[in-house]
Design a protein that fits this description.
The protein has helices at about 1-30, 35-45, 50-70, 70-80, 110-115, 125-155, 165-180, 190-210, 215-230, 235-265. It is mainly α.
């Protein structure tokens, strides 16, 4: 009898642990998008479908994920140089989620947190200047260069005419839009800022960087029109509609502009009808 009770308790414990594990996984997906999900989203928005192309471009996604989401070493160095700083209730997204082209000292959440951390510091003004100079010159510039270099080496798309920067911008913005599908969005830039970044520093640079074809001009008009559909919606829905527009039009631009270049790197683009 006692052995039977012990057996049932053991089975019960296993079921409880299994349920708790599932809840933990579900909670992590709600709070933050997992690395494989970001890779899946990048593949979808870039039109990467076949396994060979996915293998060949994965190095770029790994680097992008590291540039945007890996924080341990840089956070340690920030704390070493500015022991008064913490990311508070924002969590790790307070760092490096301001966007590829953004100026950290104009990133309102980070500014607010710095002011909170320095509210009782008699050298607050000087500390704030040193902090943002360090973030911009020592960290952001290095991370951005790393992503641009990964774009060039993985895809063969050059830095000339701003092409590599434009792709880095889009990669960054797609990641941020993906993060809007989670619950932890307080540290993310406003959707309007991401949308403007996508259009002005992403799509327009890819389209107008070289000689425009008639199809590229049509794509620019169609993409701009598609983007407007999301305005006025709640953030998660607006982010979703922006991603749908990118999935439809970015592969067309890449195929029109860089088909042969990508092919030499073993990367094929599938155009979504």
């Amino acid at each position: 009898m006692q052995m039977e009770i012990m057996k049932r308790l053991k089975n019960f414990d296993c079921h409880v642990l299994a349920v708790m594990f599932l809840f933990a996984i579900m909670a992590s997906y709600c709070y933050a998008m997992a690395k494989p999900e970001h890779s899946r989203l990048w593949n979808e928005t870039f039109g990467i479908v076949d396994n060979n192309s996915r293998r060949n471009i994965q190095r770029l996604w790994d680097t992008a994920q590291e540039v945007i989401d890996s924080y341990t070493e840089d956070y340690r160095d920030i704390r070493k140089n500015f022991d008064w700083f913490t990311w508070g209730s924002y969590g790790h997204r307070l760092l490096f989620h301001w966007g590829f082209n953004a100026d950290p000292k104009r990133y309102s959440q980070l500014m607010r947190q710095v002011h909170t951390c320095l509210k009782n510091n008699k050298n607050a003004h000087e500390e704030e200047k040193k902090f943002f100079a360090y973030i911009t010159k020592e960290i952001q510039s290095r991370r951005n260069r790393k992503l641009i270099n990964a774009v060039i080496t993985t895809t063969g798309i050059p830095s000339s005419r701003g092409y590599a920067n434009a792709l880095a911008t889009i990669i960054y913005d797609v990641h941020l839009l993906g993060d809007y599908s989670t619950t932890n969005t307080s540290a993310l830039p406003p959707i309007a800022d991401i949308e403007n970044d996508l259009i002005e520093r992403g799509f327009k640079r890819l389209i107008s960087g070289g000689g425009n074809t008639k199809r590229l001009e049509e794509i620019e008009r169609e993409f701009t029109s598609a983007v407007r559909l999301g305005r006025g919606r709640i953030n998660s829905r607006r982010a979703q509609l922006l991603l749908e527009a990118i999935k439809k039009y970015l592969p067309q631009i890449l195929n029109e502009r860089f088909h042969d270049t990508l092919k030499t790197r073993g990367i094929s683009i599938l155009i979504k009808e």
